Amino acid sequence: MCGIIGVVGSSDTLGTLLEGLQRLEYRGYDSAGIALVRQGQTWRARTAAGTESVAALREECLSAPSGFSSGIGHTRWATHGAPEAINAHPHLDCSGNIAIIHNGIIENHTELQEQLEARGHHFTSVTDSEVLAHLIEDQRQLGLELSEAVRQSLLLVRGAFALAAMDANEPDVIVAARRISPLVVGTAPGVTYLASDVPAILDRATAFYAVNDDEVVRLGPEGFRATDLEGAPVRLRQLQIDWDLETAEKGGNDDFMSKEINEQPDAIRATLLDRRRRNGAICFDELRISDEELRDVKRVVLVAAGTSHHAALVAKYAIERWARISVEVDISSEYRYRDPIVEIGTLVIGVSQSGETIDTIQATREAQRRGARVVAISNIVDSSLAREADAVIYTRAGLEVSVASTKAFVAQVAALELLALRLAQLRSTLEPKDIDALFLGLNAVSAQVATTLDRRSHVELVAKELLHAHDFFFLGRHVGFPTALEGALKLKELTYLHAEGYPAGGLKHGPLALIEPGVVVVAVATDPSMHEKILSNLAEVKARGASVVAVATDDDEHIDSVADYVLRVPASEPMFTPMIDIVPLQLFAYSMARGLGRNVDRPRNLAKTVTVE
Ligand code: M6R
Question: What is the pTM of this model?
Fold first, then answer.
C-alpha cells in the first residue's frame, strides 16, 4: 500500500511533497522518494530507512536545487523487489527525463520487461513499476504528448495502478491515472495536486475530486482535464471534504477498525493480483522455494497466534482437500514446548500479520532447528519472520492499525488458499479445469465481501437489539468452525463480553449445559453440505431458550425457522466462505463495542503485536 503525491504550479513544491509524504505515514512504508521536474532537468532523491525514510529524505532534500514548481513523491510498501533505495520510486526511463510513481501491481510486468529489454531498454530496479517509465518513453518517442503516451501505455498494462508521470520535456504537466488503487485530485488557485488519499493535501487544496477506475487525468497549474482510457472526456466527481486531519487519515471513518473492515475487498484483490502466469501456473514471485521441493512436501504444519491461527485453521481444510497433504495446525506458543516431531519433507508455515509475534518466530526457529523448511505468510515486507524463513508469501492488506485484526485475516485466507491451489497443481491432485474454476471463484470473493459490507446497517440493528446480552456462543462446522472462533475472538476482544467459539458438533459434549434464556448463539450456517446438521444444532439451543443469530446465504429458505436474526451473505464455494462470513461477525462485534462505548481501535490490556512470551 504505497502513498503517492504530486503538485504542479507550486511555489513550495518540496515542502508540499515532503509534508504530504509525512501525512501518508499511516499507510505504512519502507522507503520514500521524490522527483522535481523542470524544462530539461529532473532531480531525484530516494531513501530506504524503514519508517524513518521520509525523515531521511528530508535530509537528502537539503541539497535540492531551488526553483522547481512541479514534482512527485512516493512512499513505498514493497511488494515486488526488496525495500532498498534502488527499488524506491520515482523510477526513471532510460533518458532520465521521464519520472513515474506507482501504487499497485503491474501483473504482466515480466513479459512487458522482456519486450522492452529486447527493444534496448535498460532497467535499474527489481520492481514491477519500472516498466511504466519505459513504456511511456516508447510512446513519447513516437511523438505523443505525455497524457497520450500514458494513456497508450496503460492499454498495454494488466493489474492495479495509481500512477503519476512527469517529463522534463513537458514540464508543469503531471499525468495521473487510476485502476483499483486510490487517487484523488485537488485544486487551489494556480496549483493542482494529486494524492493517494486526501490527508496528504488536506490543507493545501481547496477542492477535491475522485478519480475513477480507468481514468487518465492531465494536471497543469491551471487545473485538470480527465478522459477515460479510450480518450473520451469524463468529469471527475467533486468530494465534499469537511474532515480534520485525524478523520482524513481514517478515510472519513470514525476509527481505523471500520476503515480496515471496509478495505477488505481491496486487501483480497491485492493479495490475489499477479499470481497466475500465462500458462496457468499459480505463482508467488517472492516465494524462494522450488516447485520440486513444494511438490515433495509430505506434511504441512501451520503455526500462528490469535486471528492468524484461525486463518491457519481454514488453510488446513483447503490444503488437505485440494492438495491431499496431511496438515497440523499449532498455536505457536505451544509448538516450541511440546518437543515436536519434524520428519523429512515437513513444511512449516508461520502465519503472522506483523511477522513480529514472538511466539510465532520462536516456533518457526524451533522448526528450522529441527530441519524443517519454513515459509512465512507475512503482511509486513522484510518482517523478522519473513527474513528468517526460507521463503515468504506476502499478504497485501496494507498497514493494519487497529488492534483487532480484520483485513489481515481475509488476506491470509486468500494467500493460504492460493498456496493450497499451487500445491494441488504441482501434485496433480486437482484437474486443471477445477483449479481454473476455484481460481475464478477466489477472485470473485472480493466483490462478495463488498456486497456483504453494503449490508452493514442490518447488522447494526441486530447488535442494538442484543446489546444487553453477556454470554455468546459462536458455532460452526467445517471451515465455519474457524470462522466461528474468529467471530468470538472479535467480540470478546472488542466488547470484553464472554464469547466462546465452538464446533457446532461439539455442543452436545458439554457446552449445551450452559445454554439458557439470555445466552446468544451465533451460528455460521452457510455450507450447504452441513446445513441440516447446523439447523438441528440450532433447534436444540433454541428449545433451551437461547437467542439465535445465523449467518446464512441469500438463498437459504429454512434458516428463519430456527434463527431469531439472520445475517445474509452471498453464497460461494464453501472453502471461500470464511472470507465472506467473517464480515458480518466483524461488523457485529464492532457495533456491539461501539454501543457499549468501548475503544474499538485500542481494546484494554491488548497490544497490536505481542513481542514478549
Ligand atoms: O501479527 P500476528 O498475526 O502474528 O498477530 C497474532 C495475534 O496477536 C493477533 O491476531 C491478535 O489475536 C489480534 N488482536 C486479533 O484481533
Answer: 0.80
